[in-house]
From TrEMBL:
<keyword id="KW-1133">Transmembrane helix</keyword>
<dbReference type="Pfam" id="PF06197">
    <property type="entry name" value="DUF998"/>
</dbReference>
<feature type="transmembrane region" description="Helical">
    <location>
        <begin position="137"/>
        <end position="161"/>
    </location>
</feature>
<feature type="transmembrane region" description="Helical">
    <location>
        <begin position="108"/>
        <end position="131"/>
    </location>
</feature>
<feature type="transmembrane region" description="Helical">
    <location>
        <begin position="6"/>
        <end position="24"/>
    </location>
</feature>
<dbReference type="InterPro" id="IPR009339">
    <property type="entry name" value="DUF998"/>
</dbReference>
<feature type="transmembrane region" description="Helical">
    <location>
        <begin position="45"/>
        <end position="69"/>
    </location>
</feature>
<protein>
    <submittedName>
        <fullName>Membrane protein</fullName>
    </submittedName>
</protein>
<keyword id="KW-0472">Membrane</keyword>
<feature type="transmembrane region" description="Helical">
    <location>
        <begin position="173"/>
        <end position="190"/>
    </location>
</feature>
<keyword id="KW-0812">Transmembrane</keyword>
<feature type="transmembrane region" description="Helical">
    <location>
        <begin position="75"/>
        <end position="96"/>
    </location>
</feature>
Length: 191
């Protein structure tokens, strides 16, 4: 089980590195554009690597949580379901902001919304159980990140209002980074 946690932690580290590379190599605004926009065009393969690393990390972490018996089963199941929905995000490319909404784009949005919700649900279930199991430094970091996760998800939802859409990318990036950090630190602390 410790090996599953360790592999998940390493993959979440890869997620963070690939996320950074997307922003260095992409041509999109980190404030206005959705991260999924990197999945269309020249950064498509890099986006696929980023998404795949996140999918496998969630699968490994979910399996470790289910095998360990320390956390509620639903926390592991949420991570496994989130990984499945992220496959849908990867399989159905987004429509770039301002373009006509296609069937693939609608499917992409549905899978993305479900994966965001399941990620939040997993963290919400796992957080109170994790705190007494991890070292002091991890407890403080996880607690701070949980606030970032909650507030940024609220920002993502609010920025779906057309007048605020121009800052959607900022809140989405904060959400994606804070959730990857939260899950990666949990995996590392449990390894």
């Amino acid at each position: 089980m410790a090996i599953l946690y360790l592999l998940a932690a390493l993959l979440y580290l890869a997620v963070l590195v690939l996320f950074g590379l997307l922003h260095v190599r992409g041509g999109y605004s980190p404030i206005r554009h959705a991260v999924s926009d990197y999945g269309v065009g020249p950064t498509r393969s890099l986006f696929a690597a980023y998404a795949s690393a996140g999918i496998v990390a969630a699968l490994l972490l979910g399996a470790a949580i289910l095998a360990g018996g320390q956390f509620p089963v639903r926390g592991g199941l949420y991570l496994l379901a989130m990984a499945a929905f992220r496959l849908g995000v990867l399989a159905f490319p987004t429509d770039i902001e301002g373009e006509r909404l296609t069937r693939n784009g609608k499917l992409h949005y549905g899978f993305a919304i479900a994966s965001f919700a399941l990620t939040y649900m997993a963290i919400d279930v796992l957080h109170p159980i994790a705190l007494p199991l991890v070292a002091d430094w991890a407890r403080w970091v996880l607690s701070g990140l949980r606030w970032a996760v909650t507030l940024s998800l609220g920002g993502v939802v609010i920025c779906l209002i057309p007048a605020l859409r121009r800052v959607f990318g900022l809140f989405e990036r904060i959400y994606l980074l804070s959730t990857a950090l939260w899950l990666g630190i949990l995996a590392s602390a449990m390894a």
